[in-house]
Amino acid sequence: xxxxxxxxxxxxxCLPLPILNILGNILGTxxxxxxxxxxxxxxxxxxxxxxxxxxxxxxxxxxKITQETIKTSLELTIALTRSPEYISSxxxxxxxxxxxxxxxxxxxxxxxxxxxxGSFDLAGRYLSELTPFPITGIFxxxxxxxxxxxxxxxxxxGNVKVATADQKGVRKAYKALKxxxxxxxxxxxVPETGEGIMATFFNHPAYTMTLAAKLAGKSDIIPLFFIGExxxxxxxxxxxxxPLEKPLTNDIRQNTQLINNQIETLVKQxxxxxxxxYNRYKIPAGCENK
Length: 290
What we know:
about 290 residues, alpha/beta, two-stranded antiparallel sheet, globular
């Protein structure tokens, strides 16, 4: 099974980006129509955000979101199999590159945070070509065992290292930051029991990881956000890099909320490309809703 999946990934990654874009629109439309569970969660989470005020437009917007979500999945095949040179060629512009350059010159660890927004796998891969040191990506292994070696091998190439989202992986990330390298983290990933606190996300309680806030608040670490914006019709991507909107404090709970607030701001910039189907408001067993 692993070799079959690897072949399919390689085949998809060889398709021109405009073709992948069309395929994403077709598959996304089909998925939206045949999966009531995905459709309901997307509409519910989109409603929480209050980004769409016209109830008559929320269904069509949710369908567009599903199309963009499928494109993200298809683009993962490129991130896992294509060369760094090819991936770099897909990015047409960088906005906010000065923030990354300033952070590099500080000779500190760099925490690069991106939510489930846009083409985050491709953006992370492209970022690894812009830094003079390795980037360690923290990721949660897929549930399907045959995908694990494909993901690990595809991600750990060139200037990229990987760390699993567990205690061993966190220690690896801390070591990378201490060595004045960079770490990529998705701060809107729902953490395991005991690894998060309740914070609001679009004015609704959401169990939120504290790891991002703990790392971002350290004096020897520079936190930045980045987004891989998908351009229409397969024309490529734009990498956006942002500093934190507000300075962090010594309070983990407050810092966790500040990070959530900035994610909200980014989602409002590119709402169609956010993974609203993700079960962001899930509360793991054993966690108190407080």
